[in-house]
Amino acid sequence: MEYRRLGSSGLKVSALSFGSWVTFHFQMGVDPALRSMEIAYDGGINFFDNAEVYAAGESELIMGQALKKAGWGRDTYCVSSKVYWGGDLPTQKGLSRKHIHDACHAALKRLQVDYLDLFFCHRPDLDTPVEETVRAMHDLVQQGKVLYWGTSEWPADQIMQAYGIARQQNMTPPTMEQPQYNMLHRDRFEGEYCRLYEEIGLGATIWSPLASGVLTGKYADGVPDGSRLTLPDYGWLKERILSDEGKAQIAKAEELKTVADDLGTNRALLAIAWCLKNPNVSTVILGASKPEQVTENLKAMELLPKLTDEVMERIETILGNRPAPPIRW
Q1: What are residue 173's phi and psi, to 5 degrees?
Q2: 89-124 burial by CB neighbour count: b if 16+ within 10 A, else e?
Q3: What is the CATH architecture assignment of 3-213+272-308?
Q4: First and final C-alpha spacing in the chain
Q5: DSSP letter string over 22-58?
Q6: Which of 181, 180, 177, 185 is nearest to 204 (CA)?
Q7: How many Cβ atoms sit within 10 Å of the Cβ of residue 54?
Q8: How many Å apart are CA 303 and CA 299, to the nearest integer?
């Protein structure tokens, strides 16, 4: 396993990490979740990702029980949560001081830990002043309940606004962002955020390296039984993948098979390694519906040296979606 700094912070996270979105509760109970986490941990993974909204808190409950059973030293791993969608009532959602406070304490209880290593603002909240959000996060850091805070899917200008407010008022600035990033979704990470890596040392814990399974090729012949597209709460994802745009992306995945074959690998590992190739990626969050998938996905580290400039350019030719160079003033 390779370990990378979380942006400009001193925290070193494993280049591959393990997340629970979709799988915990919907596809995994405590025992298979524990087995998956043990495989990840034994493979060098030291960061486990979660959120209050995942399975309406059930995902964190399962991860908390798994962590307790595993009995690992708290100084050997990092765990995260995210705040925004906690419930339907006005005080149960958004990024107000109250909901951030309540969400943090609820996550600590569900995960059965004394502090969160990483705490993300899951989306921007247009109804709450950014300063209020920054101060609430800063206070949690000061209280020792959160070590690093960041954002997820925030526009670059709002990340900079939060950073500027924190610096001006001697508060803790955001350390990391958690955006979607994969071969088919590149503009924000490679374009919009480009200056943030250099100017404020933004770290990145990227999600969906397989584009919800599209890049594995498993949807080439329709929706297989047992995939996330068959889950009742993910009809929106099924609709998106089976749209005209989604079908075009599935066709791209088919073209990538020749590259994977020539490298002696499969498309899933190729897609994960491609994300790892970007030096601005602090960690790639893996998901798995069964423990065996964790074992398989860990092999992406072995593929990384094979992604030469020639191979990367071959992939670019197939994708045809390289973002335009960012404008520098």
Answers
A1: -80, 165
A2: eeeebbbbeebbbbbbebbbebbebebbbbbbbbbb
A3: Alpha-Beta Barrel (3.20)
A4: 38
A5: TTBTTTB-HHHHHHHHHHHHHTT--EEE--TTGGGGH
A6: 177
A7: 24
A8: 7
Residue matched to tokens 């990470």: 189
| Residue 308: how many other CB atoms lie within 10 Å | 10
The runs of H, that is alpha helices, within 112-180 are 130-142, 156-168
CA distance linking residue 284 with residue 197, whole number of Å: 16
Write down the pLDDT at residue 224: 67
Q: Which two tokens stand for residue 124?
A: 């921007």
Residue in this structure with the two tokens 């197939």, named with its chain if needed = 318
**Long-range CB contacts (within 8 A, 24+) of 311-319:** 311/259, 311/263, 312/274, 312/277, 314/259, 315/183, 315/256, 315/259, 315/274, 318/252, 318/255, 318/256, 318/259, 319/183, 319/184, 319/252
pLDDT mean for each 10 residues of the chain (329 residues):
98 98 92 97 98 97 98 98 97 98 98 98 98 98 98 98 98 98 97 96 97 87 67 69 80 94 97 98 96 97 97 97 76
Q: How many CB atoms lie within 10 A of CB 302?
A: 11
Domain ranges of the chain: 3-213+272-308
Annotation says 54 is catalytic = yes
- Find the catalytic residue in 41, 54, 163, 219: 54
Q: Which residues 6+ apart lie within 8 Å of 320 measured at CB? A: none
Helices 267-276 and 244-262, interaxial angle, to 10°? Answer: 90
